């Protein structure tokens, strides 16, 4: 083991926290850090029935490399569902993956050569940063406001790089809908503008739409993909609607991209066993009703969190109010370092994710991310009381 030398691209950066963290042994602890769904809304009974049915019908085929009907059913269900977001794609544009994160990582693996640029939002999803760094990318960040990525800034940078004859980015990674961590959503004008830039400059967009189903006001915007299908690699997932442990998501992209990605699967089909069960579930399941249940619950938890934040810390913070998804982004004064608050808060039984994890340059100590989807309203209120106590023990208000 002592001789194991990692390539320098791994040792330059401390690994950021994993997507969900691990479950704590302390039952009273309030985990506002976990990006988890509400456990009691996950369809465990329905999956149990679907698993039984799939085992009875497909029998031993479930255990063969190509499975039975599952992969075909999942593919056609997803291709139909994503029409809701304006995606009109064919079978050749689709690849099942073990979660949106694998779609992100496959994109990095097929497009990035060490030293290539990748442009991201600031702040952005830390596991995506980890993947781009591991591929050897030079990461360049662009600010996000209440309306998501500031596309004008991207346009200026593309113009400048192009005028100076510099290399353009291999792709631009964005979360246009209920962004992680800010909760912001890119309006339709910016989506169109970004799609046009991708076409004009021949740059790919990696569009991560993991939270798109979870809208709290019933509105749905067309994906960036819908404006430039030849330039967008779209990733999404069942993690936020059926459960992250299924590890089932998808990529929808130009056929050439899908073929490169499929090559990296080395001839093997993604987990046919899981697809068989999920395919069976989706045949009979009222997915719209599930989305409605989740959205109703999360809307109520978001409101409770916003209220509690105003009550406990109102004069000290600015708070994002997302129209969907899992997260609230909290901004403190410039003098505040949330990393000093974190251990005191942890001792008082509450955890959050410090802003630094979401910035490529490690800055962002005045921000923190709170997740409202997983904890009960009572836990949210209790957790924010503890967080405020920890904060005021350092910054006396
Ligand atoms: C923006 C975003 N993309 C992707 C993922 C991961 O999705 P999956 O579980 O499908 O890999 C997450 C989960 O936290 C996320 O927040």
Automatic annotation (TrEMBL):
Keywords of this entry: Aminotransferase, Pyridoxal phosphate, Transferase
Pfam families: Aminotran_1_2
Gene3D superfamilies: Aspartate Aminotransferase, domain 1, Type I PLP-dependent aspartate aminotransferase-like (Major domain)
GO molecular function, one term: transaminase activity
Presence of keyword Transferase: yes
Domain Aminotransferase class I/classII large: 98-387
Enzyme class name: transferase
Cofactor(s) of this protein: pyridoxal 5'-phosphate
This enzyme's EC code(s): 2.6.1.-
PANTHER family in alphabetical order: AMINOTRANSFERASE, KYNURENINE_ALPHA-AMINOADIPATE AMINOTRANSFERASE, MITOCHONDRIAL
UniProt name for this protein: 2-aminoadipate transaminase
Source organism: Paenibacillus favisporus
């Amino acid at each position: 083991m002592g001789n194991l030398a990692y390539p320098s691209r791994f040792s330059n950066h401390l690994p950021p926290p994993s997507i969900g963290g691990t479950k704590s042994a302390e039952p009273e602890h309030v985990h506002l850090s976990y990006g988890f769904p509400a456990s009691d809304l996950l369809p465990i009974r329905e999956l149990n029935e679907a698993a039984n049915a799939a085992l009875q019908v497909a029998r031993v085929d479930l255990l063969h490399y190509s499975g039975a009907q599952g992969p075909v059913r999942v593919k056609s269900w997803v291709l139909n569902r994503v029409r809701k977001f304006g995606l009109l794609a064919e079978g050749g544009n689709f690849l099942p993956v073990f979660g949106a994160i694998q779609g992100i990582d496959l994109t990095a693996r097929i497009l990035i050569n060490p030293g290539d640029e990748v442009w991201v939002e600031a702040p952005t999803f830390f596991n995506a940063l980890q993947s781009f760094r591991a591929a050897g990318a030079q990461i360049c960040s662009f600010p996000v406001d209440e309306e998501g990525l500031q596309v004008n800034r991207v346009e200026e940078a593309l113009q400048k790089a192009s005028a100076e004859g510099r290399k353009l980015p291999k792709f631009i990674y964005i979360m246009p809908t209920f962004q992680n961590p800010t909760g912001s959503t890119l309006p339709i004008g910016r989506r169109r503008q970004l799609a046009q830039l991708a076409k004009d400059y021949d740059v790919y967009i990696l569009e991560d739409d993991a939270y798109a189903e979870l809208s709290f006001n019933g509105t749905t915007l067309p994906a960036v993909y819908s404006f430039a299908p030849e330039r967008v690699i779209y990733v999404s997932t069942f993690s936020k609607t059926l459960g992250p442990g299924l590890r089932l998501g998808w990529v929808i992209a130009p056929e050439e991209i899908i073929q490169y990605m499929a090559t990296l699967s080395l001839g093997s089909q993604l987990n046919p066993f899981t697809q068989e069960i999920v395919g069976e579930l989706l045949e009979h399941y009222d997915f719209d009703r599930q989305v409605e249940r989740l959205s109703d619950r999360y809307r109520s938890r978001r409101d409770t969190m916003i209220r509690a934040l105003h009550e406990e810390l109102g004069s000290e913070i600015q708070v994002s109010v997302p129209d969907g998804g899992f997260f609230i982004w909290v901004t403190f004064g410039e003098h505040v370092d949330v990393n000093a608050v974190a251990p005191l808060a942890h001792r008082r039984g509450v955890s959050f994710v410090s802003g630094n994890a979401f910035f490529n340059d490690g800055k962002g100590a005045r921000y923190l991310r709170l997740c409202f989807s997983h904890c009960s309203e009572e836990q949210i209120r209790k957790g924010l009381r503890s967080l405020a106590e920890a904060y005021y023990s350092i910054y006396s208000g």
